[in-house]
Amino acid sequence: MRIRFKLDGQDVEVDVKHTDTLLKVLKDRIGVGSVHFGCGEGSCGACMVLINGRLRYSCLTLAGYVDGKEVTTVAALARDGELTEIQRAFLENDAAQCGYCTPGMILTAKVLLEKNPSPSDEELFDALAGNLCRCTGYIPIINAIKSVSRR
Amino acid sequence: MSDQFSVVGAPIKNVQLLGHVTGSTQYVDEISFPGMLWVKAVRSPVARGKIKKIDTSKAEKLPGVVRIITAKDVPNNIHVNMAVIGIGPPDEPVLPEDEVKYKGEAICLVVAKDEDTAAKGAQLVEVEIEELPPVLDMEEALKPSAPVITKWGINAFIYGSGMDGATMPGRPGRPFFLVKRGDVEAAFKKADYVVEGSYLIPPIEHAPIEPHVCVAKPEPGQRLTIYTTTQAPYFVRDNVASILKIPPSNIRVVAPAVGGGFGGKVDPEFEMQVAVAAMCVGRPVKWRWTREEEFTISTTRPAIKIEIQDALSSSGLILGRRARLLHDSGAYTRTSPYGVIKSTVNLSGPYHIPNVYYEGYCVYTNRQPSSAMRGYGVFEVSYAVELQMERDARKLGIDSWEFRFKNAYRNGQVTATGRLIDDAYLIEVMKVAAALSGVSLPHHLLQMSSWG
Question: pLDDT tens, B378-433?
Fold first, then answer.
C-alpha cells in the first residue's frame, strides 16, 4: 500500500507492506539517520519519534498508521542551525557518550517538559523509564533536563 | 601547570556531541548502497551436534533469495581471530563444516533482496543435526569423563606448548597458566589461620544499544570495503584478508561512530561472514543483528570461578595464598587465554603476598564464546580478592581497613610475577577513600605510607 505522511516537515510518499514497521520504513527504505534500531521490541527507546506530537516507539508502530500524519524526529528540532534549549543543555552537560540513545532521550525530554515544565525527580525518572542508555550516562542526562526545567 | 599547557588538565568536549543531539551522527546502520542485499543466518538449535545434512532447496526457491552460503564457499575457513596478535589457536571456522559447538552458531547464511526475505529464507533451510551431549559446566568440562569438545583432546587451553603463540611448539605444556613465588607450602604450615573462599562471576552481556551491524561492498579487482561497528578495524581487516585469501591491502575497513561497544565489538564476530557473502554474490551485503542475536550469539564477559585459600598470621599478615581460577571461554578461543593470564597474575590484588601458587584455567564449554569486556580478567579477580580480604579480616577479628593497610603493597616490594614496585599509592588512595566516605581512620593507619 502507498502511504503519504510528513517527515520532519517534508512530504513523503512510500510503498509499504502491511506488516512493515515505521522504523523499518524510516531506516531501510527512506534512510533516516536520526532514528536508531536498538531492540525492535519497544524496550530501549532508540527508535523514538513524535507522531502528531505524541511520543511513539517507531519499532512498535505499523507504517500504515502514519498515513496522513506528521512524523517528527530529533533532526527537525534545530531551526537554521539554531539548537533548541534542550539540545543545548545536552551539549553543555555532556549528556551523550556514544549518542545512540540521544535522539530518543531528547524527544522524551521535550515532551515531558512541554507537559510538565518543572518535573520532580520522580516524574523525571518515570518519563525516562522507556529510554535505555548503556554507556550509563543517566546522571548527565538528568542534569541536562533539570537545567532547562523551571524549578 | 595551566600556564604551560592548553590541553593537559583541561576538559575536552566530545567532538561527536553536536551530531548526537541533532541526530546527524552517522552509524553503520545509515550506510546503504544501490542493489544492496541482506544476510540472515541459519543458526544451530542445539549446543553441540554433528551436521548431517543441509537442505537448501526450499529456501532457494523463495523469490528474492539470491544465494545460500555454506562452509564450502569460504576460501579459507579458519577464523584466525586473535592469532593475528599471537593469541591462538585459530580454532573457529567461519561457518562450521561438520560440527556445531554452541547453540545459535551460524551454520549457513541466506543472502536475499531484503531483511525479511533473508529471514524467511533462513527458516526454510532444513538442517539435519545429530545432537551430541554438550559440556556446559566448567568443573564438568575438566573431568576426564567429559566429552572432548576441542581439537587437541582436552577442554582447556594448553599453556607453554606453542599453542599460546608465545612459547616454542613441542615443549611440554600444562592445562593451566601458573604463577608461583616463594614457598607456599611452608607458608601454610606456619599459618595461624587458613581462610577459604569460592567466588562465582556470571557471564555479562555488553548489550550496546546499537547491535552488531556491518555492510561489505565488493570493489573492482578483488578489493572490498567493509563498513562495520567495530572497536578494532585492523583485527577485522587481517581476519577477513586471511579468510578471503587476499592481501590485507585490498581491504578497506571503515569504522563510523559506534553505538556502544564496551569490548563487545573488539572481536571480529561476523564481518568475515558478511565479507564472504559479499564476495560470493558480487554485490553490497548488509547484516544487522537482532537484539536476540546480540544476547545469545555475541560474546559475553566470561563466567569465572575463583577459589582462594589464604594462610594468615595472627599478627594480621597474609603469609601465602593458593588460588585456582576457571575462565569459561565458551566454544572457541577468541581472546580468552589472554584474559586468563591477566586474571591469574592479578590474584594477589594490590596486596603483598610473599608466597603464592595460582593456577588459571581457560576452559572450553558449549556456550557462546566469551571475550573482552571492560577490564575483563581484572574486574572479576578484584571482586573475589576484596571479598576474600573481608573474610580474612573477620577471621582475624580485626577491622578490614586495618587488614588492607597492613597488607597493601609498599614501594620496594616485589609482585607475584617479579616486578619491583616503585609506584605504590594504595595506602594514600585508601586514606582519601576513607575521608570521602566519612570513615575516620585510627591514628596509626594515618601514619602509614607506601614509602615505609
Answer: 999 999 999 999 999 999 999 999 999 999 999 999 999 999 999 999 999 999 99
* Range from B1-5, B268-272, B310-314, B335-339 carrying the lowest mean pLDDT: B1-5
Query: In which region does residue B321 sit, left (phi positive, over 0), alpha (psi from -120 to 50) or beta (all else)?
Result: beta
Q: Is B449 on the interface with A (CB under 8 A)?
A: no
Locate B106 and state its grid cell.
Answer: 551460524
Q: Which CATH class is domain B28-132+207-296?
A: alpha beta
Secondary structure (DSSP) of chain A: -EEEEEETTEEEEEE--TT-BHHHIIIIII--SSS--S-SSSSS-TTEEEETTEEEEGGGSBGGGGTTSEEE-GGGTSBTTB--HHHHHHHHTT--SS-SSHHHHHHHHHHHHHH-SS--HHHHHHHGGG---SS--HHHHHHHHHHHS--
Which residues are B92's β-sheet partners? B79
Fold of B177-204+300-401: Aldehyde Oxidoreductase; domain 4 (3.30.365)
Q: Which domains does chain A show, CATH number per domain? A: 2-73 (3.10.20.30), 85-148 (1.10.150.120)
A84 interface with B at CB cutoff 8 Å:
no
- B19 contacts chain A (CB < 8 A): yes
Mean pLDDT of the region B316-334: 97
Q: Are A24 and A47 in contact (CB under 8 A)?
A: no
Using CB atoms within 10 Å of the CB of residue B361, give its burial: 0 to 12 exposed, 13 to 18 middle, 19+ buried. Answer: buried
Q: How far apart are CA B48 and CA B231, in angstroms?
A: 30
- Partner-chain contact A83 B21, CB within 8 Å: yes
B215-267 pLDDT per residue, tens: 999 999 999 999 999 999 999 999 999 999 999 999 999 999 999 999 999 98
Determine the residue among B12, B28, B31, B209 to mutate to test chain A binding: the one whose Cβ has the most chain A Cβ atoms within 10 Å: B209
Total CB pairs under 8 A between chain A and B: 105
Domain assignments of chain B as residue spans, ordered by start: 28-132+207-296, 177-204+300-401
The reported pLDDT for the residue numbered A151 is: 58
What is this model's ipTM? 0.97
User: What's the average pLDDT block by block, 10 residues per block, for chain A (151 residues)?
Assistant: 97 96 97 97 97 98 98 95 96 96 98 96 95 93 93 58
Q: Which residues of A touch B115 (CB under 8 A)?
A: 24, 28
Q: Which of A24, A80, A90, A100 to mutate to test the interface with B (most CBs of B within 10 A)?
A: A100
